[in-house]
Amino acid sequence: MNTIQKIVDKLELQPHPEGGYFKEVYRSGGLINEENLGEGFTGQRNYATSIYFLLTSDSFSAFHRIRQDEIWHFYKGAPIKLHIISDAGIYSNTIIGNDIEKGQNPQFVVKAKDWFAAEVIDENAYALVGCTVSPGFDFSDFELPKRDILISRYPEHKNIITALTRL
What we know:
Blueprint: H1 3-11, E1 14-15, E2 21-27, E3 31-32, E4 45-46, E5 49-56, E6 61-66, E7 69-77, E8 80-85, E9 91-96, E10 107-110, E11 115-120, E12 126-134, E13 142-143, H2 147-153, H3 158-163
Antiparallel strand pairs: 1-2, 2-5, 3-4, 5-12, 6-11, 6-13, 7-10, 7-12, 8-9, 8-11
Pfam families: Cupin_5
InterPro entries: Cupin_DUF985 (IPR009327), RmlC-like_jellyroll (IPR014710), RmlC_Cupin_sf (IPR011051), YML079W-like (IPR039935)
Organism: Flavivirga jejuensis
């Protein structure tokens, strides 16, 4: 059994809609009421949630966004290149990994409502990370747009959007 399958089995990971595999490992007991969450939220949210997220070099995490900040934590494997397009259309990227001397970040925060996608840099490799969201994640806060919608909004980023969307 290969290393990727061992991690998927050991951590009981499931396919994620954006690509890769995941498992929720923490959901706080406390709740935030809708009136305290801010614009766009409906219902209650837990204070925080976290997941394991496994990405392989033969896939990618497609451009998506959520209403909350998301903190990425690097655990093991190859570095990940995280691509970000702000609501204002500014593109940036960062490398999430353990080699601090090469400018990699072991932890990085994607700001609420920024579009982001991720890919493993090395060939035939994987990356195991964790993602923490506060207020806690709910799939009603998740947007996975079609390619043409993002391109119409950010035509200057057509190439990266095309590369990291599926539809």
